[in-house]
Write a structure and sequence with these properties.
The complex is a heterodimer of chains A (about 150) and B (about 775).
Chain A lengths: L1 E9 L2 E6 L5 E4 L13 E7 L2 E6 L1 H5 L10 E7 L2 E6 L2 E9 L17 E7 L2 E6 L1 H6 L10
Parallel strand pairs in A: 2-10, 5-7
Antiparallel strand pairs in A: 1-2, 1-8, 3-6, 4-5, 6-7, 9-10
Chain B lengths: L1 H27 L4 H21 L2 H18 L7 H23 L8 H6 L13 H10 L10 H26 L5 H25 E3 L1 H4 L2 H12 L3 E6 L4 E3 H22 L3 H6 L6 E10 L2 E8 L6 H11 L4 H5 L3 H5 L23 H10 L3 E7 L3 E9 L3 E10 L2 E6 L3 E6 L5 E6 L2 E6 L2 E7 H5 L11 E6 L4 E6 L1 E11 L3 H4 L4 E5 L7 E4 L1 H7 L7 H12 L5 E8 L4 E5 L3 E6 L5 E4 L2 E6 L2 E6 L11 E6 L4 E15 L4 E2 L6 E7 L2 E6 L1 H9 L15 E5 L5 H12 L3 E3 L10 E5 L14 E5 L10 E2 L3 H12 L2
Parallel strand pairs in B: 2-4, 9-18, 13-15, 20-29, 24-26, 30-31, 30-32, 32-33, 33-34
Antiparallel strand pairs in B: 1-3, 4-5, 5-7, 6-7, 8-9, 8-16, 10-14, 11-12, 12-13, 14-15, 16-17, 17-18, 19-20, 19-26, 21-25, 22-23, 23-24, 25-26, 27-28, 28-29
Helix pairs in contact in B: 1-2, 1-4, 2-3, 3-4, 4-6, 7-8, 10-11, 11-16
Classes of the chains: A mainly beta (about 150), B alpha+beta (about 775).
Chain lengths: ~150, ~775
């Protein structure tokens, strides 16, 4: 199963994102904050005529994380809604084969629900980030910030 | 009407296309219930639309097919070859007729009787359409006046348009700083204007006011109500809510079904309503409003509600589910049984709503667009049906407000008024933890938007604006820092992460290019802990209070002694013309012989009995007395007794009618006098007028019969207590289960309808002495 992955850096880690899930890569302009949402929801931003919900990916994965204030984001669509997930840095796209995480190699309670598997890149293992799962973690309304 | 006809034609044509595969499949497997239901729904819908559009031929055909299919659904008939053929022939014929209507060509109705006759069991298949007519239609098909477009294409057009508006704004901002040639400026203005026009037009391709859905309703309600002999008052609210065309199309038939059902099954006949103490004209309220990311269409009637007992009995008899099963369901689930296919809550099919089917059609249609339908049943008092339709996008007229550094839109439809906190006529008070604004004569709870959203306030305390918001259930004031602007906005649902807060109705991108959220006022009220009681209930209560004392209708008549007198209308069974000489003295009394029996007669001047030609036949349902009069004059509303008679007798007192003293006849005394021979006058009660509460549930018997007697005996008789009034005693009917309500510590005197002592301490209600004695004892005098 050879697929195209986008390599990005989130919360200090390299992750791979299946390029089929990425509509575009953008630099987000001003974000209008939305009170009373989950802390990981930064707010709303306009991408041309479209309104996207901006999500702090690092914080959505683990509330202890804080983003570094970067504006770069990957845009994805989940259930008809557009989201921009902030990433620290974007690398290039590579063709790789994703494999399931082997037994014993668990990425921890924060990462496990948002990871689909692992790819090998330059001999290093890189986690495959499931964007829809990240978005789903912000849908619970106001959560207690850790 | 032309619009509706065009829509009917387009829709029927489309359904027919979709149905053609079903028809073929049904032919192959006539026992297939799902196919049968689909075909049944089609003819049922056609029947419904025809009735409204006045297409009698189509109506006749579809009604006949529906009848036959209904028998199959009920299991009374097996779908055999002949029936399938006959139904298919009718569906074909419906298609031909629709084409003929569209092209304006005549189509003979020859053969239609045969088609209908072919539906009868045991008849061989009939011929289909006349080939001649079919050929004529093929040539004459009118050119289509509408096109159907893919929604995706429209969406692309919409977002392209929005992009264009944003680019225009950007261009303007940049050029404003430059020194422009007037010619360029003129061109820019023109561009701007045409972009605005264009946006309007593009928006209209997708959006439509819900008015188009509501505007035929008054006519439908009127026709339906007239057909079933009921009176219905329709109120429509929220017609200017804009909704996706797609949704409007889908909602059209279900809404008509629901409205028809409400009138046919829900609202009672005027006589039944009177008996139930409601006003004769039934009320039907239809409203649309935006709530969160949904449009809520409510259909509220004040009829009898859903009779779950009957539903259960019907379904159990149907054999689909066992009665024990159905009884185990919750109240809500039992109500929802009305959506069961093939259910008939009515025993006789009517032209209007068929057999209670339609509700399954309604549910199917609403499910199809991802909507929800909920029932709020108040047995005996009405039914509220709420249809929630997801909001794909909508144009909302909004007011933009500022809270802290944020801007939010509030739907103008919900806003009653906007006032300054420091304005005249406004007073702010604290009530515990709640802030209250007194605006003129209204007290409203105040919710500070900044507090609810947890954001720092931008305005100085006391310097805010109050936006008064009406929620259907109640009003409250939202305090905001500032009110900025009014704007028409395209509102789309926001992402679940945002909607999860319950505070927002959707998101929008105004011309500034900065995304903005629309506030869901209901959500804000909920988050602030405001609670409103049901608005319709309150309204009904208010109305009940308003009609508290319509007065008693009474007959004004000339008595035998040439005096005018009145008698409460409620006791008069009829005014009877009799032959002179029908009244005779026998066995020491005056009697009227009528209908083969004799009735005791009261007459002011018994000597004139032989000449009497008119009597009032009085009855309380058990006892009958005739009262001889000279002639009836008029029906008047009875005022309070101006004075009670000095002693009990046929006259209980005097009322003033147009300033004239008129004696009021005491029917109680007459009934008592002529049914039991009690002649002793009761002693007058001590003055001070203790209050007697007549608790017979407003049936009027006590007001008519007991009140004059009690007033005469020195009591103050009321049917309803003033708020600070304490009754000295309560009078109730012994057989009235509602009479168990004791009012404070007041003693209760129970009256029974039977003269035989039942030993439960009650008093025979015509035992004047007995009642007064019991009342005296109870009051302690």
């Amino acid at each position: 199963m050879n697929a195209l992955f986008l390599l990005a850096r989130v919360a200090g880690q390299d992750v791979a994102i299946l390029s089929d899930h990425v509509e575009s890569v953008v630099d987000i302009g001003p974000v209008a904050p939305v009170p009373r949402t989950a802390p990981a929801v930064c707010g709303l931003a306009a991408l041309r005529s479209r309104v996207v919900t901006v999500i702090d990916t690092a914080q959505a994965i683990d509330p202890a994380n804080r983003s570094d204030g970067g504006r770069r984001a990957v845009v994805t669509q989940v259930d008809g809604h557009h989201y921009a997930l902030l990433v620290d840095m974007l690398d290039d796209a590579y063709r790789c084969v994703a494999r399931p995480l082997s037994a014993g190699l668990t990425p921890g309670p924060a990462w496990a629900p948002v990871v689909d598997g692992v790819i090998d890149h330059d001999g290093r293992p890189v986690l495959v980030l499931n964007l829809a799962a990240v978005v789903a973690r912000t849908a619970g309304g106001e959560q207690a910030a850790a | 009407m032309d619009d509706l006809l065009q829509e009917f034609i387009a829709e029927t044509r489309e359904t027919l296309e979709a149905l053609s595969t079903e028809v073929v499949a049904w032919e192959a497997a006539p026992d297939d219930r799902a196919r049968l239901d689909a075909i049944f729904r089609f003819v049922h819908t056609v029947k419904g639309s025809c009735g409204f559009l006045d297409l009698p031929r189509l109506s006749r055909l579809s009604h006949a097919a529906e009848d036959a299919l209904c028998e199959v659904r009920d299991g009374k008939r097996r779908p055999d070859r002949a029936l399938v053929d006959a139904v298919l022939a009718i569906i074909d014929r419906i298609g031909e007729l629709v084409e003929a209507i569209d092209s304006g060509l005549p189509l003979t109705d020859e053969g239609e009787d045969d088609l209908i006759a072919a539906l009868a069991p045991g008849v061989a298949g009939a011929q289909g359409a006349t080939p001649l007519a079919a050929a004529a239609i093929a040539q004459g098909r009118a050119p289509l006046r509408s096109v159907r477009l893919n929604v995706d294409l429209l969406d692309r057009m919409m977002s392209g348009m929005s992009d264009m508006v944003l680019v225009r704004n950007e261009l303007f901002r940049r050029l404003r700083d430059l020194d422009l040639d007037p010619a360029v400026e003129g061109a820019l203005e023109r561009l701007s204007a045409s972009v605005a026009d264009m946006r309007d037009a593009v928006t209209r391709t997708r959006m439509q006011k819900i008015e188009t859905l509501f505007s035929p309703l008054p006519r439908i309600v009127r026709d339906t109500a007239a057909a079933v002999g009921k009176a219905v008052t329709l109120t429509v609210d929220g017609s200017d809510v804009e909704l996706d065309r797609e949704m409007i199309e889908v909602m059209r038939d279900p809404l008509v079904h629901v409205v028809r059902n409400a009138i046919d099954h829900g609202i009672e006949s005027p006589a039944q309503r009177r008996a139930a103490g409601k006003r004769e004209s039934g009320r039907l309220h239809i409203s649309a409003r935006q709530s969160g990311n949904q449009i809520v269409i409510e259909i509220i009637d004040d009829g009898r509600g859903i009779d779950t007992e009957r539903l259960i009995a019907k379904l159990a008899a149907n054999g689909q589910r066992s009665e024990a099963d159905l009884r185990r369901l919750t109240e809500r689930q039992q109500c929802e049984l009305v959506f069961a296919p093939g259910l008939s809550s009515r025993d006789v099919a009517t032209e209007i709503s068929g057999r209670g089917v339609g509700m399954d059609v309604v549910r199917a249609a609403i499910d199809q667009i991802g909507g929800r339908i909920t029932l709020d049943n108040k047995p005996g008092r009405g039914l509220r049906i709420a249809v929630q339709v997801p909001l794909t996008l909508s144009i909302v007229s909004t007011i933009v407000v500022q809270a802290g550094t944020h801007r939010f839109a509030i739907s103008r439809q919900t806003i009653g008024e906007i006032v300054k906190e420091r304005g005249a006529n406004i007073r702010m008070d604290r009530l515990g933890d709640m802030r209250i604004a007194q605006i003129r004569d209204r007290r409203l709870p105040v919710v500070d938007l900044c507090d609810v959203l947890g954001i720092p306030c931008g305005a100085a305390p006391g310097n805010k604006m109050l936006v008064v918001v009406g929620l259907g259930a109640g009003d409250f004031a939202v305090a905001v820092d500032d009110v900025l602007d009014t704007e028409e906005l395209v509102v789309k649902p926001a992402a679940p992460s945002v909607m999860a807060t319950g505070l927002y109705a959707g998101q929008t991108l105004p011309d500034t290019g900065q995304p903005m959220l629309m506030i869901d006022c209901a959500g804000v009220a909920q988050a602030a802990g405001l609670n409103f009681t049901d608005a319709m209930d309150r309204e009904i209560e208010l109305e009940a209070d308003a009609v508290v004392d319509p007065g008693i209708a009474a007959l004004l008549f000339d008595d035998l002694d040439r005096r005018r007198r009145v008698i409460p209308l409620a006791v008069i069974d009829r005014i009877e013309r009799i032959r002179a000489g029908s009244l005779q003295y026998s066995a020491g009394g005056l009697w009227l012989s009528i209908d083969g029996r004799v009735v005791p007669v009261a007459a002011q001047i018994p000597e004139l009995a032989a000449k009497v030609t008119t009597v009032l036949r009085l009855t309380d349902g058990m006892v009958e007395v005739a009262y001889a009069i000279d002639d009836a004059v008029d029906i008047v509303m009875l005022p309070e007794l101006a004075a009670a008679a000095a002693k009990p007798g046929p006259i209980c007192g005097i009322v003033l009618l147009d300033g004239e003293q008129v004696e009021q006849v005491d029917p109680l005394w007459l009934f008592e006098r002529h049914t039991r021979d009690v002649g002793v006058a009761p002693a007058r009660a001590a003055p001070g007028r203790p209050t007697c509460l007549l608790a017979d549930g407003g049936s009027g018997w006590m007001r008519t019969f007991l009140r004059p007697m009690l007033e005469q005996a020195g009591y103050h008789a009321v049917e309803r207590l003033a708020s600070d009034e304490r009754p000295a005693l309560v009078l109730a009917q012994a057989d009235d289960p509602m009479a168990d309500v004791s009012v404070g510590a007041a003693p209760v005197v129970r009256l029974r309808t039977s003269a035989v002592d039942t030993g439960d301490g009650s008093v025979y209600r015509y035992d004047r002495e007995g009642v007064l004695r019991a009342v005296r004892q109870a009051v302690g005098k």
